[in-house]
Design goal:
Blueprint: H1 2-5, E1 7-8, E2 11-12, H2 13-36, H3 43-75, H4 79-100, H5 109-137, H6 144-163, H7 176-198, H8 237-275, H9 280-303, H10 307-336, H11 346-362, H12 370-388
Helix pairs in contact: 2-3, 2-8, 3-4, 3-8, 3-9, 4-8, 4-9, 4-10, 5-9, 5-10, 5-11, 5-12, 6-10, 6-11, 7-10, 9-10, 11-12
């Protein structure tokens, strides 16, 4: 009886509450947002609007994660995690595009967001996952082939998008033909990676059996889905109805984020300018807003001794971030004529190299350990300090 009272049409009341609140805020800002955020914007108004928008977008993001997590358990790996990752990264791309297309000039928002996501996801969140999982379960196993595939993509995509521009004639910018080429190559490579991840090489992203660090090709079909999840497409009508419901709710949570992104971008622009903070703080705020729900999901997976799912969420999220953000930002810049600076600073290049080397050593085919997680956290703390005191 209690469980029935907590649901309407089989959907938890908390989900209806998040959905209703998100759309109520959308209506309010659609009608009055132009007045509230009109110049001259006062600190009190900006703070109030930021609080409402921040709470709403984070709450909607949690709703997206919840529905995507349900899909993950119904579809199995790697399909479920891909849905979650692509949903969250799509939100990030929308927020970045909103800032880039906003009234201010933020030519580095794309690279700042990508770099912030890398430091937060690969070092902070991954470090917490390794430490939390290690303290609870000891050394944890994962699919080393999948982890190496992620790290290889990260090295190639970040090197091409963030380091290569500094060695071209545009001083951190791509020339138009270069931008079109890099955008096309990045998008195509990411599409190929997704296709292989979902089809012929999906075994690389599945939690291996105890005592193993890989899933043999011929053994893929005999692997049991984690925690009752279904591998492949479910045949039951009830399962299909549940999947359709979760998919519609997921879209219902994402659309308000899309509609509120522009208003949040205005407030972020004002806050960064008023506080005199480094421009890179905008990228950090976007990364925190978008990836907090997914980060909590990854930590929960590590605590459940599902290290491969945590890796899929963290490393997969960053691969998706680069694979989707770089083409989107470059194309927006080319179409609108907005300046887009992709090259990172020498200091950030060093931090990028340290992150890649540390990641490759952490996931080199051995089990994870608490010490490795502590190293990732130390690198993130260094990044946070240098962000304000370079």
């Amino acid at each position: 009886m209690e469980r029935t009272a907590m649901r309407v049409n089989g959907i938890p009341n908390t989900t209806w509450l998040k959905l209703g609140w998100a759309w109520l805020v959308v209506i309010a800002f659609t009608v009055y947002g132009g007045t509230w955020l009109a110049e001259p914007l006062t600190p009190i108004t900006a703070a109030a609007c930021f609080a409402v928008l921040f709470f709403t977008i984070v709450a909607a993001s949690f709703g997206v994660v919840h529905e995507a997590d349900l899909l993950a358990h119904k579809l199995g790996e790697p399909y479920g995690t891909l849905i979650l990752t692509l949903s969250i990264v799509s939100i990030e791309v929308i927020l970045i595009a909103s800032v880039l297309l906003g009234p201010g000039e933020f030519p580095t928002i794309g690279r700042d967001s990508i770099f912030a996501v890398m430091m937060i996801i690969v070092n902070l969140v991954m470090g917490i996952c390794v430490i939390a999982g290690g303290l609870k379960h000891g050394e944890q196993e994962f699919n080393a082939q999948g982890a190496n595939a992620y790290l290889s993509m990260i090295a190639l995509l970040t090197g091409t998008a963030l380091v290569l521009p500094n060695h071209l004639s545009g001083a951190g910018e791509f020339a138009p033909l270069q931008a079109w080429t890099i955008a096309a190559v990045t998008a195509a490579l990411y599409a190929v990676f997704l296709l292989l991840q979902m089809r012929s090489e999906s075994r690389l992203f599945i939690q291996p059996r105890p005592g193993m660090m890989a899933v043999p090709a011929r053994a893929k079909a005999s692997i049991s889905p984690p925690q009752g999840a279904l591998q492949g497409t479910p045949a039951a009508t009830g399962e299909r109805a549940a999947i359709l419901t979760s998919s519609l709710l997921l879209l219902g949570m994402i659309i308000p984020i899309v509609l509120l992104a522009h208003h949040l971008a205005i407030v972020i622009d004002y806050g960064v300018a008023t506080a005199g903070a480094p421009v890179a703080v905008s990228g950090v705020l976007i990364a925190i807003i978008v990836f907090t729900p997914e980060s909590l999901t990854a930590i929960k997976a590590a605590l459940n001794n599902e290290m491969q799912r945590a890796i899929n969420l963290c490393l997969g999220a960053f691969v998706s971030t680069v694979g989707l953000t770089v083409p989107a930002v470059l194309v927006i810049g080319l179409i609108t004529g907005k300046q887009v600076v992709m090259g990172i600073s020498p200091l950030e290049t060093v931090l990028l190299a340290l992150t890649l080397v540390l990641g490759m050593l952490t996931f080199n085919g051995q089990r994870t350990s608490v010490m490795q997680g502590a190293m990732h956290l130390a690198l993130f703390i260094t990044y946070g300090f240098l962000l304000f005191f370079p």
